[in-house]
Structure to design on (176 residues):
């Protein structure tokens, strides 16, 4: 199959180059790799692109998160993360910090997810810098919300599904 490609030179001249393509005529099959992409048809977006939730005078990170993420999802994340920690605690490095495990409550999970959102809002070089007490880079909301050790332990245990219920050959999407 032959295809034509228009090449635009910097001195505003255009030239057409013919190139050989060894693809089958119908590259519609999603299981076949093609050298060229099919032209996408973009449908117009008719919705709104704004999250229309107004939070007046939020008291905490957890309160803001609760207005966006439902209670069921928070409880599911807390339960599955606790279950995952209990399944895998022997495999993880044992240190005095990790020995002080306490189950994740829904309130802990709300705080954790709120801090995750804040991590994306303010860029720091190192994750430890968010909990720094150095006045030049300090962000008090982080250490007032949760200790860095608790944040790390929740991060390590964060899980969305029960691995023991995974069926063999279920694929990677089982986790979500």
């Amino acid at each position: 199959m032959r295809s034509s490609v228009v090449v635009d030179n910097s001195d505003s001249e255009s030239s057409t180059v013919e190139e050989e393509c060894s693809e089958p005529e119908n590259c519609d099959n999603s299981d076949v790799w093609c050298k060229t992409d099919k032209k996408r048809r973009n449908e117009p977006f008719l919705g709104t692109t704004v999250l229309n939730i107004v939070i007046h005078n939020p008291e905490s990170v957890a309160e803001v998160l609760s207005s966006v993420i439902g209670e069921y999802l928070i409880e599911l994340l807390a339960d599955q993360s606790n279950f995952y920690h209990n399944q895998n605690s022997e495999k993880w490095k044992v240190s005095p910090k990790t020995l002080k495990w306490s189950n994740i409550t829904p309130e802990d999970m709300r705080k954790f997810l709120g801090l995750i959102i804040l991590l994306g809002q303010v860029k720091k070089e190192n994750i430890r810098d968010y909990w720094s007490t150095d006045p030049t880079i300090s962000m008090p909301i982080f250490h007032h919300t949760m200790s860095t050790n608790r944040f790390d332990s929740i991060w390590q245990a964060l899980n969305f599904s029960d691995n023991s219920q995974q069926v063999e050959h279920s694929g990677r999407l089982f986790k979500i």
